[in-house]
Known about the structure:
10 helices, about 350 residues, alpha/beta
Amino acid sequence: MTEHEQPERHEQHEQPRPQPHEQHGHERSEYEDGAPDMSTGTTEPVGENNADAAIPELVIISGMSGAGRSTAAKCLEDLGWFVVDNLPPALIPTMVELGARSQGNVARIAVVVDVRGRQFFDNLRDSLADLDAKQVTRRIVFLESSDEALVRRFESVRRPHPLQGDGRITDGIAAERDLLRELRGDADLVIDTSSLNVHELRAKMDAQFAGEEEPELRATVMSFGFKYGLPVDADLVVDMRFLPNPHWVPELRPFTGLNEEVANYVYNQPGAKEFLDRYTELLQLIAAGYRREGKRYVTIAVGCTGGKHRSVATAEKLAARLAAEGVETVVVHRDMGRE
């Protein structure tokens, strides 16, 4: 069992504090003991009467309990982000204001928002609107996982789901999905951790946040097998089952789409090269629209029957085309080797 496959244990993140009175802002205790001290009422709005204040970049981490929020937060902390766990959504703008007054010491803030603060969750949309009005650069990262994976993780540590009450773990998961549905729809980046280990999750986070210069658009091209289910974090889905399956060619069956002979077989089929050319043109059109709308991340899922031959070869070719267009691209072969 990997680290992120268990319900978040909320280890304490150690990070330099921007102001002495914030020393408890990242503790895992209940927020009546752990929130930044707002009692003075002296916080100035970002950008008002404080022309030299640098507005920090903000990432909001949320998602299903047990899907790896604490691992994602720890990854950002290792990259130098100031991480605050379980901050009530109503206090997010105030946290950004405190960072803006830190004289550049807190340039990037990551906030974990989850169902432990569900009594504050209705305030999140107002907080996001407030941040947008103040032109704060903010992104939402949503950690997703299948019901089966979440049940397995909770059972492995013998802990109840935060929302299950007197019911079953599945009842808590269903209630949480319903609560987070709107936030998931607004997320800039959705990561499905159902089949990821802790190192693979960290690699995904590093790929999105490690660079010094933020690219205009980042793409994950994922091959998958339809018989194992659709990727829940896909923005676009491509079905390659219209091409002949190399599985039925005995000399190609043992290999994958990474093999040159398999790739040549797939793309020597009628319609294969034409599809690649036209879909690349379509992706260029979509990418331009994403940039205009401020969307920075896209996951393109390429499927075939088993996720071994056609989808793998196509994912590699699409990724190469996107990279040639200046899109930073990560390739993931979800089901390769699973058969």
